[in-house]
């Protein structure tokens, strides 16, 4: 059975005061209607203060992530995974990120081997998440739509 990829806006309100946070709007991938970020946090604990790697206001970065997700560009992580959720303040892997290995055959894309990684320790596999298999055209359309924030 194939999965369906979509996205919804993930809005992080900014705040000021003793601890300020930067407002961000990004794409939260949904698989079969469920937030992938919420699924990861629910199954593996930790905080959910991440932004999607497709962030409004950063068109060059969005295009680069879209190329990585469609295997037209090399992932930026040393593990060969594409970063899906990153630090909402700086976007740096060093603060921690959720990532996925993307593969493709003639008809489908597969997301598997999800991990939490930070670039200086071995990635921690998220063994209970995925794999997810998407029909190629539906997947590419969803990635293109999400990258056009």
Descriptive notes:
The protein is an alpha+beta fold. The protein has one domain (5-147). Helix content is 21%, strand content 33%. The chain has three helices and nine strands. It has helices spanning 36-44, 59-69, 136-147, and strands spanning 5-12, 24-31, 34-35, 51-52, 82-86, 97-104, 108-117, 124-125, 132-135. Strands 4, 5, 6, 7, 8 and 9 form a six-stranded antiparallel β-sheet that branches. A three-stranded antiparallel β-sheet has the order 1-2-3. The longest helix is centred in the last third of the chain and has 12 residues, at 136-147. The radius of gyration is 15 Å and the shape is globular. The model has no long low-confidence stretch (mean pLDDT 93). It comes from Corticibacter populi. This is Oxidoreductase.
Count of the domains: 1
**Helix segment count?**
3
Task: Provide mean pLDDT, rounded.
Answer: 93
What is the tally of beta strands? 9
């Amino acid at each position: 059975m194939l999965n369906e990829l979509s996205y919804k806006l993930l809005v992080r309100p900014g705040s000021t005061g003793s601890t300020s946070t930067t407002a961000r709007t990004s794409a939260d991938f949904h698989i079969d209607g469920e937030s992938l970020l919420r699924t990861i946090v629910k199954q593996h604990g930790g905080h959910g203060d991440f932004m999607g790697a497709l962030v409004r206001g950063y068109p060059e970065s969005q295009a680069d992530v879209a190329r990585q997700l469609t295997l037209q560009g090399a992932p930026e992580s040393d593990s060969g995974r594409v970063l899906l959720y990153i630090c909402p303040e700086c976007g740096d892997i060093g603060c921690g990120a959720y990532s996925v290995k993307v593969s493709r055959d003639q008809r489908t894309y597969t997301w598997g081997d999800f991990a939490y990684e930070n670039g200086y320790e071995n990635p921690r596999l998220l063994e209970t998440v995925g794999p997810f298999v998407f029909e190629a055209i539906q997947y590419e359309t969803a990635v293109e739509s999400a990258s056009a924030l």
